[in-house]
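To start, an entry.
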Amino acid sequence: MTKRNKLDFEAALAELEALVSRMEQGDVNLEESLRLYERGVKLSHHCQEALRNAEQKIQILQQKQGKEQISDFPSEE
């Protein structure tokens, strides 16, 4: 993924979900499975990076407001 052709988080996640679904069907040959897996790893890393960047931006904004840490959402249990 080059800078010009960079996917946004939602598009990358949707493509990753489609790849997983396709691979779970089990009708893909070995070579295609490896290609899909490699693409899935790249998409997964892209999504993780986007989430890390978003978390950093939130931390910066909270620090500017005088809050030091991000709080987890309360669990629904």
